Amino acid sequence: MPSGKFITFEGGDGAGKSTQIKRLAAAIEKTGLTVTVTREPGGSRGAETIRAMLLDPDAEWDPPTEALLHFAARADHYTTKIAPALKEGAWVLCDRFADSTRAYQGYGLGLDMGAIEALYEIALDDFVPDLTIILDIPVETGVERMIERGADPDRYEKMDTAFHERLRQGFLEIAKQDPDRCAVIDANNDIDTVTARIFDCVETRMGVTLER
Ligand code: TMP
Fold first, then answer.
1. Contact 29, 211 (CB under 8 A)
2. Rounded Cα–Cα distance for residues 44 and 81 (Å)
3. pLDDT tens for each residue of 115-147
4. Is the pTM of this model over 0.90?
5. How many helices (H) and strands (E) does the chain have?
6. Atom 2, ligand 1: which residue's CA is nearest?
7. What is the distance in angstroms between the CA of the first residue and the CA of the last residue of the chain?
8. Rounded to whole angstroms, how far apart are CA atoms 159 and 149?
9. For residue 80, how far is the Cα from the chain centroid?
């Protein structure tokens, strides 16, 4: 059994995940624990190759192929990076994980949820995150933040508002179905307030004390 902890961050684009992950990683490290920060799709050599294929703006994957690619990337990421880090006792913070496939390919693109769960079992067996933090923001706010950031939009960021609204509702539904694992944090606030809410949540759920 792994001795570390696995915390995933989820939510729509522009919710501020990367900033918050950096802050949480620094605070956990200060307690003396080892932290590994990683992301999906990607995080390992093989998975980063698959990431480039998935995010290629010119690619035209159909939803089942897309889900297969996400889970292929995830299986490699889990085997080569996440599981070994957990075995060493690290706290692994992951920017997106399987809930993103449920939300994007399932709720967003309409792929059958049973098919997604079948792929999950093949790729990960019964492995689940210890905690999933879902950063929730209104779709328009996420879009505004993406525009401010000024980066070229990837395939998913180019999708229409209705798609992004389905994602948001999808993430909220996932949290409702699995409240012991998931915590929804209102990310429509200044960065420090969101950080404080995340720290409160991690302290309560994971039994650590973090320096503020
Ligand atoms: P990122 O921008 O957060 O790095 O993620 C890349 C994009 O990939 C993002 O728009 C969400 C999407 N995605 C999926 O569609 N399914 C998945 O399983 C994952 C992990 C990400």
1. no
2. 6
3. 999 999 999 999 999 999 999 999 999 888 888
4. yes
5. 9, 5
6. 13
7. 31
8. 17
9. 18
